[in-house]
Each structure stands twice: as structure tokens, then as C-alpha cells.
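User: Teach me something about this protein's shape.
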Amino acid sequence: MQAGIDTLPHPPYPIGIRNPVQEPRISNDRPQPDSGTSTPSPSRGRLRRALPVLVPCVASALLLRLAFPVPGWFPLAWVALVPWLVVVSAGSRRATVWGSVATGLVAAGLGLSWQYIVTLPGATLLTLYVGFYFPLFACVVRVARGKLRLPLWLAAPVVWTGLEYLRSWLFTGFPWLFLGHTQRPFLLLIQVCDLFGAYALSFVVMASNAALAEAVVAWRARQWPVRRLAVGASVALALVAATLVYGHVRLKQLDCAEGPRVGIVQGNIPQEVKNTLTIETICDIFMQHWRTTLDMKAATGDEPLDLIVWPESMVQWPLNWIEQPEDVDFATPLRAAAEKHGVALPDGVRLDLRPLLWALARQMKCPLLVGAHTIVGRDRTLLAPHDGIVDRITDHEITFDGRAYPLPVDEDAHTGRRPHREVFVAEGQRVDDGATLIKYSSVVFNSAYLFRPSGPTEPIERYDKLHLVPFGEYVPLKDLLWFVLPAVPYSKGFSHGVHDNLLTVGQWPFGVLICFEDAFPRVVRRFVVRDDGQAAAFLINISNDGWFKDSHELDQHMAICGLRAVEFRTGIVRCTNTGISGILAPDGRVQSLVRDARGGVKAVRGFTVGRVRLRGDTTFYARHGDLLAAACFAVAAVAFFVGAVTPVARRLRRKDTP
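Assistant: First, the predicted structure itself:
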């Protein structure tokens, strides 16, 4: 007889299942002979019973961590989850839940340990959130097996992929530490991403883990349901074989044209320096990137460049400000920084950041893409000039006791956005001298600006980041979560961009992805599949991973970006502050990297130059999106619903039974 989910097999018993044969009960009425040993304590007994569950679950978490960068031992991912899946498949309900909690907390805590460099509260909450998906997976899989009668080799990959899809958009999404991300170095395997995205990799790897886990459960129970095991193993092997064959064929078919010659500047500015926002530090960072740009030009010879890229937010000043505040003077600190870094400032150029960037573009004879902030309006409070009555309020002026006072009207030419305005009085209201009338709060964007050698243009070309990082770039429900504000990097918060506009260099349109936007396929899709018929020929990701020093976050981010290149068959230029910067080909290969003299790619200052390979035809994944992942989520949702409704229905039937 085949062992079902609730069937107790013959000894030896799988992990977490007790012997159903009761031991003879010993009566306390008759004194027992002294064995010479003390009675074990209850806590020691609980620990002894928990270890057979905790050890394999923690082992799975550790093996999974080793499969991710760093060290990136990706073959381990094919067996890492087997011990945990054995507990999920054959363990008791309590063992499954608590073992899965342990697996999730260890796997998420180790995989996201780089978050603790930035914020302890935020990292703890993120670890708990990602770790929660492991016990959720275990519970849904048990329902899928018990109620929907799905075998483990099918239930596990379907539910896992569906939950990855859920995590990619729930609460704005956190598509990090996906099982498929471990396979980034496996060039043949990852080519399937152009069909179903990185979710396809997760599905195949989990299917292999599940087939092995079923075999282990059968071996431990000394029961061999040959047909079920053969089907599971055959499906897993067929998936792997088909994926490898597809990868082999696709690599031979790819034919990408050569695109623009791009220079990448990696400044390696410590985040502690960037956080010290003074005019002096702004000018010093600015001139350090200028110096590295000149070094790149000197080292690469006379072949012209088509584009130069600086990382995210390396110009730490709002570049949409044409006129600077009266108390800001860049001239003296710019001269000092230029002298420090050996930069000869151009003659006849106003010593301000915008004119100097255009001057550098003219000197390099190619456009310059830089990351900077955009600030629309100023934070200001308007007070009543004296006791009186408010007559009238418009967008442009407020009339107070018959006298009109002009109001600031700051409108962004690129987006049409205005500062947030909060009016504290009403027309006809009497107010006292010094009372608050109106408060203005500026709107801030995380932007990329394109400076051309031809000089100033109005409006200046830029892209504003569309997808913001919660608790990193903004605080959701700020009024409710006010206590979180001191723990986040930007408590004021950025605003979402409103345009997925393309920029151009030469004949090639390109899309810009800022920071973690490259982790979201749906954001990337907006640049390569468009209703207006235009499409990005290649992509540029600018990022400031300096928050995480030289941790494994840099390697994880690079791996995710590499999968985006395969999914959309597009060349991607990565320009980051501390690494890893380089050019990725549409097949996922790394064309070039910024390295130091010893070959290091993280926490180094340097540059690289290379030609971007252009995107060819639009991939199936780009056209149709997350079909596989959405279908898996639908099945997982049905299983979850059945698991939630069945106990309620059972209790209702019991109440109705006389």
C-alpha cells in the first residue's frame, strides 16, 4: 500500500512521526527497581525530540545560503531543500510548522544579513517577512497533497513558484532570494528565462528537490511506491533535460548587433562620506568622478565614446535647480576639490554643477548620464503678517485684509508636479498675527540626468525612478508609522516618477533602471514592450550599493541583473558606486567589469569601457509576462483556500449534527 499524507508507515519512522505502537504502561503502584540513572528533565526531553526536526531544517537553510552568492555554490541548490522537504512531507503537523519556521528564519537571516549593515529594525522585519513564506509554503503543500491529491514532486514546485510570484508584488514587492537566482552561473540552464522568467529556474530546481525528498521518505519508511517515484524522477529529469537542450539551442541562435561604446565610472565613495552632506563633500565627490572620467579617457585611446555613465546619486545636488539658493556658493569648494584631484577646470564656465557637467560632456565629446536628485519647490511655511481676515486664496496669491500676497508657484516642467500644499485657514476666517496660513512641502525624485555636448536644453532630459523601495526611499503610512522615521535613510521620502520615458544616445533609445528597479521584471518590461511602438535597444542600471559596503548584496544584485538580461535578451550596463559594475550581454555573459590592479570588483575605484550588445527580437517572456508564475499562484491560492475553509466547514457540520 502506498503511504498517503496521513498514513503512518512501518518502522523506522520518518522524521517527526512517533511510533504508533504504544509501549507497555508501567504501573506506579508497584515500586520499580532503581536503574541507577536519573530521570531526564522535561526540557531535555523536548530538546531531544526537537533535534531530529531542527537539524535537517537548519541544514537545508545553511545549504541554501551556500548556493547563493557568496560563495555561490549553485549545484547545492539542487539538493539543499531535501532535508526540509522530508520534514514537510512525512513529519507531523507541529514538526512541519516549527521546522519550517526555523528554516525560514535561518535562510532569510543569512541571505539578507547585508540589511543589518543599514538598519537593525528594518532588517529584522524583512527577515521575519521573508522567513514567513517557508511555513506558509509547508502548510499549503500539505493541503495540496492531502486535499488536492497532488504528489510532492508537483505540489512543491507549483506552490514555491506561486509564493515567489506573490512576494514579487505584495506590499510593492521584494523579489529577492528566489531559488532560481542561485543558478545565475549555469549559463545553459538560465536561457529558459526568456520563456518564463527566473520563475522557470525556481520551478525546475524545486521539482528536483521534491523528487529526491520523496525518494528519501520512501527509503526511510522502507516502502517503495515505484510508480509514484518513477513518475516524479522522470518529470524532474525531463524538465532539467529540456531546459538544458533549450539553452543549447538558444545560445546558438542568438545574433545580437554591436551597439554604443560606453564608459563606466565607479567612484567607490563610502556611504559615510555621502551621508555627510556639505558643500565640500558634494564638490569632492563630484571632482573625484571627474578625475576618474579623465583617467578613463586617457587609458582607452582615441576611439570615441558614445556615452559615459556615473552611478546613482553621485551628484548630490538637485540638478533641476537653475538658480542656487543665495547662501550657496560652489565656486570656492569646487576650486579646492579640483586642485585636490588634479582637475583643470575649463575656462569661461560658471563654477556650478550643471554648467560643469555640460562642459565635461563637451570635453569628452559624448553625452554624460549621471544620477542626482530632483527637488520641486522648497519646504516653507507662510505666516499671517498681522491680525486680520483672510479674504481669498488661489494658487497664485492670498488676499489678507484687502492686500494680495503672492504665493510661490513651483512647477516641474518634466512632470507637471507641484509641491504639496496644506492650507490651514479658510476664506473669511479671522487669524492672529503669526498664525500658520499655508505650508509647502517639496517633492523629491530619484533621477538620472543626461547631459549632451551640445549644451543646455529646456526642459533638461531626465528619468525619475518609478518603483521606490519602502522604508528605504519612502515610508508607507507615514502618519501611522511615525516611529519608524528615525530608522530609515530618507525619512522625508521620494515621490514616484510618472513617466517611463526613454533616453537616446545616437540612434539607440535606452531605458534607465535606478537602484533596485532591475530586480522587478514588470518595471523592465515597461521599457522593452511599449504601446507607442518604441522600445529600448539596451538598458542601463545605475545604483548606489555603497549602503551595503562590500557584502554579498553586491553579488546578489549582479546575479539578479544578469537574469534580467536573459529574460529580455537585452544588453545591460551596470554602473554602481562600490561595485559590481560592468556590461552584461543578452545571453547573461559578463562582457567587462570594473576591476582594480588585483582583479577586485567590489569596493574599488576604477572604470571600464565596452560595446553594448543590442536587443534583437522581443522574447516570449517580454510579450506575455509571468504566465507560469501566475498559474502556479492560482493553484497555490486554491490550496490555501481549501486549507482555510475545510476546518470551518467541518466545525459547522459538527454543530448541525444532532
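Now, about its shape. The two ends are 36 Å apart (CA to CA). Residues 627-656 form the longest helix (30 residues). If you'd like, I can walk through any region in more detail.
User: That's plenty for now, thanks!
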